[in-house]
Amino acid sequence: MAIEPGNLRPSLHIGGEWSGSSDGGTREIVDPATGSAILVVDEATPDDARRAISVARHVFDDGRWAGTSVAERTAFLTKIADLLQRDKEQLAHIETLDTGKTLAESRIDIDDVTSVFRYYAELAAVHGDRLVDVGRPEVISRVVHEPIGVCVMIAPWNYPLLQISWKIAPALAAGCTMVLKPSEVTPLSTIAFVKLVQEAGVPDGVVNLVQGSGAVLGEALTANPDVDFISFTGGLATGRTILAAAASNVTKVAVELGGKNPHIVFADAVSDPTAFADSVDHVLTGVFLHSGQVCSAGTRLIIEDSVADLFVAALAERARGIRMGSGLDPTSETGPLVSEAQRRKIEKYVALGVEEGAELVVGGSRPDDRELADGSYFLPTIFDRCDRTMKIVQEETFGPILTVERFTTEEEALRLGNDTNYGLAAGVRTSDSARGERLVRGLRHGTVWLNDFGIYTAAAEWGGFKRSGNGRELGPSGLSEYQEAKHIWHNTSPTAAGWFVTR
Ligand code: NAP
To answer: Residue 373: beta bridge partners?
Structure first.
């Protein structure tokens, strides 16, 4: 079926049926590049969310999905990957309309989503059970991995389909059933995706979808005893609320939260003009890609003092040249912020940075280009002379703001890089590989790039240290999150226990 924004209603999917909300509620979805409503989607009520969970519970318990063979589930994952590629252009278009990111980025997102499905199709086939040698030939002791059960998946707006695919693909591979809740701001690609899941023939009730406000649906989704696992990606404050809501049922929760990611540049990394220009390019891309709305954005430049002035000047020059515009315009290098609310938040942080005494080098305002007046655009912004007492250095701004701190010794660089409550990702640029290895081992972040930035792969774990979260997505651990390990002890020659003497 062709996917067009116009046929995304009715937009709730429960037990294989597409329906509207039980109270008729709807929400307008806005294109952040123009500020205009693109279309209306149905908005679930807490009762709809409870119904979706109850269907997922029933379908899990009757074994129609959990009881399928790995080979069957692998075939579904592969089919979904094929359909994603067939509809790549439409899906990318929808993602761009909804988030504002450029089409080039959205296309990469769809390829990445596809690779996640292909990866888990392959991994599921080999991620096997384990025989345990207990030293008794009559005993077969084995650890088997069983699906964890009913999963609730809550996703953010910056990479709507990508983030939720990191959850859906391993959950399907493991044999779980699920209820998806995309961000209220960006539900479109997830609705379109669920149509593909249906087309692939995944049994009804395995993948259910409700969308609407997290504040309204949150409790119904996260404090429900029928849920076995909640996988959440989003901000720290929401993560805390979900952890608290899940505690009464002792529901397992994995939270993938924000980051305040250091990008550490040593003078030895920029000693010739090419290396200098390449490093500037990586720092620029690391922070301003998708207008900084990336959890792993390198928002803290930590740079050796001897090269800082030159480097920041070059960076500012490049930042001024970034071509901003609608994601649908192929000449745009970055798009608007996802919403007006997000732009207001960024404006508050800029005002705070000035108040805190940071030096505004470039940006700091909306563009004055008339063509961009209706969208929620904000200029790439750099603050120099920052220090770690400032809120703009400590807090995740989630927009196009780079702060610059300076260091003189390696120890200081490492200390600054770890001086954050978050621990999602970090980058180091140095030509001294021994120093680089010391740094990558010393940094307390879930992903560390040495002489690169922002790259990830489906086969390697992703997740945060400290307040950046507690779970791991992608890689083998990303599948294990959706499994329970069960130890089975089979005594093939049973005899008496023989502990108590009287029988
Ligand atoms: P958010 O406000 O925390 O929202 C995330 C999701 O949670 C949305 O679907 C939201 O619904 C829902 N939600 C809100 N309140 C809820 C509640 N009480 N109970 C249950 N769900 C609730 O985050 P965001 O602004 O969408 O996304 C940005 C954040 O995500 C940043 O902090 C970013 O760093 C983080 N992120 C982390 C990663 C990672 O891999 N670690 C990746 C991407 C993004 P509504 O949309 O209706 O509010």
So the answer is: none
261 Cα: distance to centroid of ligand 1 (angstroms): 18
Tokens in use for 282? 């990586």
Residue 408 located in a structural domain:
yes
What is the domain range of residue 334?
262-450
Q: Across-strand partners of 145?
A: 485
E strands in 134-228: 139-147, 150-154, 177-181, 207-209
pLDDT in tens, 359-400: 999 999 999 999 999 999 999 999 999 999 999 999 999 999
DSSP-H helix ranges across 22-179: 46-61, 70-86, 88-99, 103-126, 160-174
For residue 464 and ligand 1, the question of a CB distance below 6 A is answered with: yes
- Asked if residue 65 lies in contact with residue 75, where contact means CB atoms within 8 angstroms, the answer is no
Q: Hey, what are 254's tokens?
A: 């994995």
Determine what percent of the chain is predicted with pLDDT higher than 90. 96
User: Per the structure, how many domains does the chain have?
Assistant: 2
Q: Which of 257, 291, 313 is the endpoint of a domain?
A: 257
Indicate the pTM of the whole model. Answer: 0.96
For the CA of 182, the nearest atom of ligand 1? 9
Which CATH number do you get for residue 382? 3.40.309.10
Give the three-class secondary structure for 133. coil
| Final residue belonging to a domain, choices 426, 450, 474 | 450
Residues 63 and 94 in one domain: yes
